[in-house]
């Protein structure tokens, strides 16, 4: 039996909060290659849930399944107590799942502000006609959304680059803008695909702080994939460990660190 | 005098350029949003113009087919439709066309190579051309939506009094310029200040990212093809009024190619400026250099200019520079 009963979890966040998303027996295949093999785990309200594992373990595939970019061949995804039917990525986004990408997917031609505003597209309801006339509800809506976006810009300390075209920004700032765009959607779950990949130490520390602050201040549930074990252990409430498409560990950072299978996957085991 | 005549040539060239820009604009819109070079853009202009004439004159669509199948002889409904309703109805038909293209073609080719999509639009061009002929007949049609035509007397008199030389300027060209300017202003306003416009720019930039913020690519594609259809309708009206609605109308697409190479395939301002440069350049070239080489330079000038651009600035004046990181 792989799944650990919830009561055994030691952290408060992981143990007592209600389940927000439940992934049951997910299997994802590309032709003959099995990327994810019968994996189950849950995501609880307000926690930071990490997925770790060596290269090619299927972490990104897992995130893509959650965000609807891949449709698994088997398994069920339950979100807010309801089974989620197969959906297009944009429909999943409209359910309240926002994400960032491993190789940054921003709108390079647009300013930082415009990029973040796209995160709020689904919050805007006024008709094309009233927008065209810049009239009543449309104007109010635009102003409200701008105010929200400005809040996020302040929060992530990117005021000084708000008018800069994103294409001109350095890597670390791009990652931050991508986070801002995801936050602008006020997501139920925020999915971060290697938010710290390719960053220097200082940038990593900043990003860690932002992730923790987002979780603290907005209570946002966060699922993140990360390579850097140290970072993951500091940040997360609970960790799923994957290797070769299987789940080999699930629990608090301490539990996972002590798991022999995890140790062997990461460090290798001496063969006698 | 010489200078004034050259200025007149220049003004006329600029106005001809506006007409090229109108066609090029349709290409740019679709190319930006979906990476598809829509070969059918010129035929869409022809089809829109044919449909507009057909509706306005109250022609029975598929009259030949109906006659052949049922042995009857129908041709016209016997009514005429005012231009404004005709244009509105044709615009709706172009939206229907956009939906059909998305549902029947694009949807099934998601993620395919650009060349495959390009081939699909060639097929679409042939299909539309045939459909237009079958629906409305292949005869040369006269399109008159009430736009003024002919040399503007007032401009001629005014310039004659002022400069001592009367400028010959076609009123249709003036209207075309005004309408094109309004169209471009509306497009820019739409893409900059509405949420649908923002979504459109987002899709143009990055499909994955657009999906992740909840934008439906299919909706945006339908929207963009509808707008391109509307631009094609405007171009079709202008060109159709000028030179009659006939097959050669679809060949204006060929003139749009050098415009795109100059302006860049991904830039709306580029399409405008490119069109103006080509229009102006070919008239001035014909005026100054034409006599030395035996004339008829307008047939090839645009293409040679485009060729030079391909050699020295392949991304065009405003296009995105292609830089591969290694």
TrEMBL record, chain A:
Keyword Nucleotide-binding: yes
Superkingdom assignment: Bacteria
Pfam name, any one: ABC_tran
Keywords, ordered alphabetically: ATP-binding, Nucleotide-binding, Transport
A single GO cellular-component term on record: plasma membrane
Lineage of origin: Bacteria, Pseudomonadati, Pseudomonadota, Alphaproteobacteria, Rhodobacterales
Entry-linked InterPro entries: AAA+_ATPase, ABC_AA/LPS_Transport, ABC_transporter-like_ATP-bd, BCA_ABC_TP_C, P-loop_NTPase
The keyword Amino-acid biosynthesis belongs to this UniProt entry's keyword annotation: no
Protein name: ATP-binding cassette domain-containing protein
GO MF term list: ATP binding; ATP hydrolysis activity
TrEMBL record, chain B:
Record-linked InterPro entries: ABC_transp_permease (IPR001851), BCAA_transport_permease (IPR052157)
Lineage of the organism: Bacteria, Pseudomonadati, Pseudomonadota, Alphaproteobacteria, Rhodobacterales
Subcellular location: Cell membrane
Chief location of this protein within or outside the cell: membrane
Domain of life the protein comes from: Bacteria
TM regions (residue ranges): 12-31, 36-56, 76-101, 108-128, 174-194, 215-239, 259-279, 300-318
Molecular function terms from GO: transmembrane transporter activity
Gene Ontology terms: biological process: amino acid transport
Topological relation to the membrane, as annotated: Multi-pass membrane protein
GO CC terms in record: plasma membrane
Protein name per Swiss-Prot or TrEMBL: Branched-chain amino acid ABC transporter permease
Pfam families, sorted: BPD_transp_2
Family to which this protein belongs: Belongs to the binding-protein-dependent transport system permease family. LivHM subfamily.
Swiss-Prot/TrEMBL keywords: Amino-acid transport, Cell membrane, Membrane, Transmembrane, Transmembrane helix, Transport
Source species of the chain: Paracoccus litorisediminis
């Amino acid at each position: 039996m792989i799944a650990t009963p919830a009561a055994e979890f030691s952290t408060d966040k992981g143990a007592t909060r209600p389940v927000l998303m439940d992934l049951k027996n997910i299997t994802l295949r590309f032709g003959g290659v099995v990327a994810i093999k019968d994996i189950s785990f849950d995501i609880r309200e307000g926690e930071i849930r990490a997925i770790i594992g060596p290269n090619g373990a299927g972490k990104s595939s897992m995130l893509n399944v959650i965000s609807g970019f891949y449709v698994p061949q088997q398994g069920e995804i339950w979100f807010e107590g309801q089974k989620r039917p197969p959906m297009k990525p944009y429909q999943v986004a409209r359910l309240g799942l926002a994400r960032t990408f491993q190789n940054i997917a921003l709108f390079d031609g647009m300013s930082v502000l415009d990029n973040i505003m796209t995160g709020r597209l689904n919050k805007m309801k006024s008709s094309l006609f009233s927008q065209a006339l810049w009239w009543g509800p449309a104007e109010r809506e635009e102003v409200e959304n701008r105010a929200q976006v400005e809040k996020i810009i302040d929060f992530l300390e990117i005021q000084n680059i708000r008018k800069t075209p994103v294409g001109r920004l350095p890597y670390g700032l791009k990652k931050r803008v991508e986070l801002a765009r995801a936050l602008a959607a006020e997501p139920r779950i925020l999915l971060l695909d290697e938010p710290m990949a390719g960053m220097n130490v200082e940038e990593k520390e900043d990003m860690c702080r932002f992730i923790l602050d987002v979780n603290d201040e907005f209570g946002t549930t966060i699922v993140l994939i990360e390579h850097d074990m140290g970072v993951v252990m500091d940040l997360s409430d609970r960790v799923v460990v994957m290797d070769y498409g299987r789940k080999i560990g699930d629990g608090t950072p301490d539990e996972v660190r002590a798991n022999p299978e995890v140790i062997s996957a990461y460090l290798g085991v001496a063969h006698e | 005098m010489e200078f004034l005549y050259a200025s007149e040539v220049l003004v006329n060239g600029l106005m001809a350029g506006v007409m090229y820009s109108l066609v090029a604009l349709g290409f740019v819109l679709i190319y930006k949003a979906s990476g598809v070079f829509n070969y059918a853009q010129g035929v869409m202009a022809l089809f829109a113009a044919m449909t507009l004439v057909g509706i306005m004159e109250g022609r029975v669509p598929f009259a030949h087919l109906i006659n052949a199948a049922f042995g009857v002889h129908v041709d016209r409904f016997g009514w005429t439709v005012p231009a404004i309703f005709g244009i509105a109805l044709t615009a709706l038909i172009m939206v229907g066309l956009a939906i059909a293209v998305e549902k029947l073609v694009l949807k099934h080719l998601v993620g395919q190579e650009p060349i495959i999509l390009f081939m699909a639009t060639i097929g679409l061009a042939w299909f539309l051309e045939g459909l237009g002929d079958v629906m409305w007949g292949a005869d040369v049609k006269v399109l008159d939506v009430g736009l003024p035509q002919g040399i503007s007397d007032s401009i001629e008199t005014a310039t004659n009094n002022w400069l001592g030389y009367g400028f010959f300027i076609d009123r249709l060209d003036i209207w075309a310029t005004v309408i094109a300017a309004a169209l471009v202003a509306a497009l820019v306003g739409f893409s900059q200040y509405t949420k649908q416009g923002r979504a459109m720019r987002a899709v143009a930039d990055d499909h994955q990212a657009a999906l992740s913020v909840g934008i439906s690519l299919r909706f945006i594609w339908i929207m963009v093809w509808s707008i391109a259809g509307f631009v094609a309708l405007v171009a079709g009206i202008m060109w159709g009024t000028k030179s009659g609605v006939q097959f050669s109308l679809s060949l204006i697409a060929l003139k749009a190619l050098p415009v795109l190479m100059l302006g860049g395939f991904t830039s709306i301002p580029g399409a405008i400026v490119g069109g103006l440069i080509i229009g102006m350049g070919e008239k001035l070239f014909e005026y100054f250099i034409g006599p030395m080489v035996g004339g008829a330079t307008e047939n090839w000038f645009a293409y040679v200019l485009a060729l030079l651009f391909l050699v020295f600035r392949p991304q065009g004046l405003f296009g995105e520079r292609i830089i591969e990181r290694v």
